[in-house]
Amino acid sequence: MDTLKNITWKQFYALLISDRDIKNNKHNLASHEYYFNRVRNYFFDKEFTNANIRAWKVELLDQNVSPSTYNKIRQMCSSINILFELGIVITVSRMRETQKDFEVLSDEEIIAIANVEIPYPKCKDYLNKRNKAFILLSGLSGGNRLAEALAVPWKDIRETPKKYIIFRDTKNGEKREVFLSQMAWEAILDLPRKRDDTVFCSYRGLPITQDYASTTFSEDIRDRCRVIGIPEERIASTDDKEGISFYTLRHSWATNRINDPNNNLKDLEIAYTMGHKDTRNLQKYVRKSLEISQKTILSASVLKGEVPKEEVLNEVRESIIRLTKYHPDFDPVAIEKMDLSVLLR
After folding, report:
1. Which of 177, 197, 217, 342 has the smallest number of Cβ neighbours within 10 A?
2. What CATH number does domain 107-285 carry, 1.20.1270.10, 1.10.443.10, 2.60.40.10, 1.20.1600.10?
3. What average pLDDT does the segment 321-330 reach?
4. SS3 state at 237
């Protein structure tokens, strides 16, 4: 086959489902269809050869595409070659992907941005309620993906045997049940049922598309961060750091759970709640810091005496705050005044 003009997405889709056992859900298929069409359009009037794939790599590098995008294009070329048995020897290698650091919001910051009232020009009350519920769900109840939340119908918000949400339209194709925090539960129930289908919809009661939501929700979260005083250097993206966006909620939830020394959670439990099949996917959420290194080194029993007294007392104070902050009688000033030194006498 000289070019790919005679290959259709319908043919490729059939091979994916039958030969590659790709999960038949719209998230996986949308990505495959996008990159299939990108490769097919490039080779529509060009020979599908290793030399031309190599030349395309040079063009992509000149366009400054990300290594991730290039690798997906290269993988699609390989998949087309294998599934249609074209017999091309592809020698073009993958590009090394360097992962950017992500900004992390604390649980307290997530609650604060959820409670911000934005003066939207239309339907202010509804949009503030909807976005508050969306932020609390994604940032404090499991770090769901954007598309997963957008697809949830009201019938999958359940109260028994516990308050939970069912994500059916997931990336890995498997249904997932996730417990809802009380704050997320109350915020969701505060939403009007404009239509008896999806929980999160536009102010006209229509479903929200993922592309539209990714942009608008990210802009909304950045605006809320500015309102509560988060500095611009944390909000904006740089060459080595991703700024704050909707994905920050998912990333923050995982990072805060994994790096909390008091959570006693297993990797498998965190991975299930997030919708990861492989616990190795959690590695990107581990905060690489001096504190983590110190905690690891000083875990040796013979070194425990090297932890400074003041640092131990600060950790005790932080633990007290963490365990009592949601109690109606919570008094942070009183906790700061506590004399905890008696614990080490």
Report:
1. 342
2. 1.10.443.10
3. 77
4. coil
